[in-house]
Amino acid sequence: MKHDITKSAIAAALMFGAASACVPAAYAAGQAATSGSTATSTSGTPSGSTAASASATAKSVPAADKQFAMKAAQGGMAEVELGKLAQSNAQNEKVKAFGSRMVNDHSSANDKLKQIASKEGIQLPAKMDASAEKMLDKLRKLSGAQFDQAYMTHMVADHQKDIKEFEQESKQGRDSDLKQFATDTLPTLREHLTQAQEAKSAAMSDANASKPPKQASSSVPMGKAPTMAGSATK
Predict the structure, then answer these.
(1) 230: exposed, middle or buried (C-beta count within 10 Å: 0-12, 13-18, 19+)?
(2) CATH of 62-207, one of 3.40.980.10, 2.40.110.10, 3.90.1680.10, 1.20.1260.10
(3) d(Cα 63, Cα 5) in Å, to the nearest integer?
(4) How many CB atoms lie within 10 A of CB 185?
(5) pLDDT tens digit string along 221-232?
(6) What is the DSSP string of 54-73?
(7) What's the Cα-to-Cα distance from 54 to each of 41, 44, 114, rounded to whole Å?
(8) 54: how many CB neighbours lie within 10 A of its CB?
(9) Residue 158 and residue 135: Cα distance in Å, rounded?
(10) pTM (two decimals)
């Protein structure tokens, strides 16, 4: 009887030891699986989902809105560079003041547009377009009254075109952020046009004032001979 009880106790002890050994192993395996799953989730998923999200956002912007953003960015850069040139090459104070405002206002607008483009996944151009580069090169060669006339003539025409494009985006834009940007920027562009027209008039007045006066003509009408003072008369 005692022998049987001893054998049963030994068997129970062996079974308990085996079970105790299995528990840590199973726990370790479970932890490894959890760690591997977490590592896969943190290392692969976010970067992939972020890229996919950015791509989806970029594709969701309508083509017309994206084109507006691209042109507005290039135009804004051109206004800043031409404004800087006006501050050094202009003669008329109104022209210089206009150039200074172009630098300040368009730098601010450019920053706002960049923020929207980043949010929408739009890659804006890094430099102005070829026509703006050509105009900048042309104006660099001018100074004084000549610069004032050429610069302000360009600014009036350029802002008339800009206002039409921003009005169209404000009314017909489908991207809410770009549409709001156009709406918010329009009042400033209209102020620019008014100031540009005033500065252009001032530049033209300076140019006319600097022209030498026309001399009176001393030519004698055809068919008439000049009379000499003190000549004898018959």
Answers:
(1) exposed
(2) 1.20.1260.10
(3) 88
(4) 23
(5) 555 555 554 444
(6) HHHHHHHS-HHHHHHHHHHH
(7) 19, 16, 15
(8) 13
(9) 11
(10) 0.67
